[in-house]
Amino acid sequence: MERTEVGALVRSAVDGDAAAWKAIVEGLGPLVWSVVRAHRLSDADAHEVYQTVWFRFAQHLGRIREPDKTGSWLASTARHECLKVHRNARRLMLTDDPQLLDRVSEDGAPEQSLLESEEAAAQSERVRRLWQEFEELGERCRQLLRVLIASPPPSYQEVSAALDIAVGSIGPLRQRCLRRLRARLEARGAT
Amino acid sequence: MNDDFDSGLLEEELRQAAAVLDPLPPALLQIAVDAYALHDLDARVAELTFDSLVDAIPVRGATDVPRMLTFTAGEVTLDVEVTAEGLMGQVLPPRPARVEVLGGPQPTTPLTADDLGRFTTATPPSGPFALRLHTDDDVVVTEWLRA
Predict the structure, then answer these.
(1) Between chains, do A59 and B39 touch, taking CB under 8 Å as contact?
(2) Beta bridge partners of residue B100, listed in sequence order
(3) Does residue A173 belong to any structural domain of this protein?
(4) Domain coverage including residue A168
(5) Does B60 touch chain A (CB under 8 A)?
(6) For chain B, what is the domain count?
(7) Within this chain, do residues B73 and B48 fall inside the same structural domain, yes or no?
(8) Residue B88 sits in the same domain as residue B125
(9) Which domain holds residue B28?
(10) Three-class SS of residue A56?
C-alpha cells in the first residue's frame, strides 16, 4: 500500500470512518499475516498474534505518530509479539494444551481447493513443489521471502520493520535467496 | 539473462503460491475489521512498562513461573500476574475499581477491585486480552497483549 494512501486512511479512521479502517485491514492484513508466518508459530499462536496486533493498532489508532508508516508499525509490532511467543514457548512448553490444538485446523486444508479439478493437477503440482522448496530454504531466506511475498507486496521499510534488518541489505539478500530457490528448483528439474 | 526480471517472476510465482497454500484466513480478516470497535477515544491507554517475559532474567530450573506485567498510565499503575489458575491484579495507588477483562470487541462481565485495589479472576485469559479499569473519574485500558 502507498504510504500517503495509508496515512490518509488512518486519519479518516481516527475520525470515525469505518470504511477507511476496513481498507487498512484489507491492505495491510496480508503483510501482518506474512510476518507472523515468517516466524514459524503454531497456527493457534499465529492466529492470536495476528489478532493482538490489530487490537493494539485499533487501541493506538488516535495516537499513531506517523500514520504514513502504519505498515512498519504493524510489521514491527507483529515481530515483537512473535518473538515473545518463542520466549514463552521455550520457558513454559504449554503447546500440548488440547484446547489450542483443537483450534488449529478450523480453516480447512487450503490445498484442497487446488486439487479439485483434473486440469489443475499439473499446475498444482508445480505450486506444491515450489512451496516445498521454499519451505526448505535456509531459515533466513525463508523468513525474508515469506514477508516479501505478502500481497500487495510490502515496501522495504515494512520488510525492515518486520525482520529488523537494514533496508539497504534487503535487495541483495532478496536476490540471493531467489537465486538459491531457483537453483533448488532446477536441481529438482522443476522448471 | 536478466537476473532482476527472472527474480521478479519467481517472486511473483511464490506470491501466488502463498495466496493458495498459506492465505490470510478470512475469519482473521473479519476479526481485524471488527476490531475497529476497540478504537476508544475516551479511555487512556496504560502502556506495558514491564513484562517478565522480556525484562526478567529467567530463574534457572524454574518452570511455570507466573508472567508478571506492569502497565502505567500517568499516576495509575496496574500490576498483573498471570498463572495457570487465573489472573491477579493490583491497582496502584490502591483504589476500588470496576475491572473488565476484554478478549476482543465483545462485551464482558466486570469484576470488582476491593478498597485496596486488588482483584482476581478464576480463569487465565486465553488469547489476546486487555484490562479496562473504571474508577470514579477515570477509564484506563491496558495495551493489548497475548497471555
Answers:
(1) yes
(2) B132
(3) yes
(4) 3-95+119-187
(5) no
(6) 2
(7) yes
(8) yes
(9) 3-35
(10) helix
CB-neighbour burial class of residue A68 (10 A; exposed 0-12, middle 13-18, buried 19+) = middle
Whether residue A102 lies inside any domain: the answer is: no
Query: What does the angle CA A155 – CA A157 – CA A160 come to, to the nearest 5 degrees?
Result: 115
Q: Which is higher by pLDDT, A103 or A55?
A: A55
* Residue (of A32, A191, A175) closest to B25 by Cα position: A32
Which candidate from B31, B65, B141 shows the least CB-CB separation from A59? Answer: B141
A111 in a domain, yes or no?
Answer: no
Q: Are A8 and A23 in contact (CB under 8 A)?
A: no
Q: Are A136 and A184 in contact (CB under 8 A)?
A: yes
Task: Record the pTM.
Answer: 0.85
Residues B126, B54: one domain? Answer: yes
Distances (CA, A) of A43 to A55, A116, B25, B31, B139: 18, 24, 11, 16, 34
Smallest Cα distance from B111 to chain A, Å: 22
Shared domain check, B73 and B30: no
Q: Which of residues 104-163 of A touch B (CB under 8 A)?
A: 106-107, 110-111, 113-114, 127-128, 130-131, 134, 145-146, 148-151, 153
One domain for residues B88 and B29: no
Distance CA B83, CA A106 (A): 27
Length of chain A: 191
- The helix, strand and coil proportions of chain A, stated in percent and rounded to the nearest 5, come to 75, 0, 25
What are A2-30's pLDDT values in tens digits?
778 999 999 999 999 999 999 999 999 99
The answer to whether position A114 is within a domain reads: no
Q: Both B61 and B84 in a single domain?
A: yes
Question: Tell me, what's the pLDDT at B6?
Answer: 80
Cβ atoms of residues A64 and A73 within 8 Å: yes
The predicted complex's ipTM stands at 0.90
Grid cell 502504519 is found at: A70
Enumerate the β-bridge partners of residue B112.
Answer: B98
Count of domains forming chain A: 1
What is the helix, strand, coil percentage profile of chain B, to 5? 25, 35, 40
